């Protein structure tokens, strides 16, 4: 059941990305281009998503356990440190350069295998590089 | 929306509601955050987290859901940067950044922001800010590599 719900979540997510225009890197960069021809569409996407998710969190707080698992597995850390800010800052640079974040990139693999493929392969390489450095340090 | 001729607020809102529903299904069903970078690292064997089949099915749903919309609407407009070098650099930086910062637009921007998580609020404001600076710099330098 939990696997079916994960698949359903992915399907809804992919459909939402496609419908919202977020699979168009030019449109995403248009949102980030406040000094130029600003395109506010992404703000509406975030607004709609956050509104629905806020309702989901309100429901979650009233539940003792999720519908398809024993326990909720939610991030508990509240630490705001250099890792968080540095990582988010780097991610923003990548997002601005390509106009792609991980979701739209993966959803685009079937439509633009070369462009999205290069991005996703490089993203996996970056994740691997981070893991190698991080494991050595700790 | 005369002042923003290219904007698609209604499509954006409708797509956003679907993305919110996706996050809700993941939260209330398997009890997890629908964080795409985390699920990707999990599927690639680069981190722990969700059970592997769960993460893999979630990721497989992304292109499948987009294909369904493409079939219904006749295609998804997309203009990619022509430079593969630029895309490779963007991907590399995105990969490192999302692991270091524990999330991307889905985990921090949608799931965390709506939970009023201080970490996610800081992360989201940070990546939007550096994204805006990056686009401004790229445009000032003539539009790309």
List the helices and strands and how they pair.
The complex is a heterodimer of chains A (138) and B (145).
Chain A: H1 2-20, H2 25-32, H3 41-61, H4 82-98, H5 102-107, H6 113-137
Helix pairs in contact in A: 2-4
Chain B: H1 9-28, H2 36-43, H3 52-73, H4 84-100, H5 105-114, H6 118-140
Helix pairs in contact in B: 2-3, 5-6
Count of DSSP strands of chain A? 0
Question: What portion of residues of chain B is helical?
Answer: 55-70%
First-to-last CA distance of chain A: 37 Å
Tell me about the largest β-sheet of chain A. Answer: none
Low-confidence stretches of chain A: none
Polypeptide structure, described:
- The complex is a heterodimer of chains A (138) and B (145).
- Chain A has six helices and no strands.
- Chain A is an all-alpha fold and 138 residues long.
- Chain A has one domain.
- Chain B is an all-alpha fold and 145 residues long.
- Chain B has one domain.
- Classes of the chains: A mainly alpha (138), B mainly alpha (145).
- Chains A and B meet through helix 1, helix 2, helix 3, helix 4 and helix 5 of A and helix 1, helix 2, helix 3, helix 4 and helix 5 of B.
Q: Can you tag this structure with a few keywords?
A:
heterodimer, A: 138 residues, mainly alpha, B: 145 residues, 6 helices, YeeE/YedE family protein (chain B)
């Amino acid at each position: 059941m939990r696997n079916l719900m994960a698949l359903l979540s992915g399907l809804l997510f992919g459909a939402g990305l496609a419908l919202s225009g977020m699979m168009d890197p030019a449109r995403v960069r248009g949102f980030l281009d406040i000094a130029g021809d600003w395109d506010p569409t992404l703000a509406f996407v975030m607004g709609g998503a956050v509104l629905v998710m806020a309702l989901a969190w309100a429901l979650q707080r009233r539940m003792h356990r999720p519908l398809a698992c024993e326990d909720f597995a939610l991030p508990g850390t509240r630490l705001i440190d250099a890792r968080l800010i540095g990582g988010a800052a780097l991610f923003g640079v990548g997002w601005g350069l390509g106009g792609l974040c991980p979701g739209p990139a993966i959803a685009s693999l079937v439509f633009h295998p070369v462009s999205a493929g290069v991005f996703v392969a490089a993203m996996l390489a970056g994740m691997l590089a981070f893991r190698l450095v991080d494991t050595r340090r700790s | 929306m005369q002042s923003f001729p290219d904007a698609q607020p209604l499509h954006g809102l409708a797509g956003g509601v679907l993305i919110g529903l996706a996050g809700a299904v993941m939260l209330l069903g398997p009890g997890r955050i629908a964080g795409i970078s985390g699920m990707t690292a999990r599927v690639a064997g680069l981190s722990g987290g969700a059970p592997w089949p769960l993460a893999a099915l979630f990721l497989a749903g992304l292109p499948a859901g987009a294909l369904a919309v493409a079939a219904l609407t006749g295609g998804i407009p997309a203009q990619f940067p022509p430079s593969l070098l630029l895309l490779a650099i963007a991907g590399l930086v995105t990969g490192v950044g999302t692991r270091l910062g524990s999330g991307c637009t889905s985990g921090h921007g949608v799931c965390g922001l709506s939970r009023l998580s201080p970490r996610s609020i800081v992360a989201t404001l940070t990546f939007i800010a550096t994204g805006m600076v990056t686009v401004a710099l790229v445009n000032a330098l003539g539009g790309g590599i």
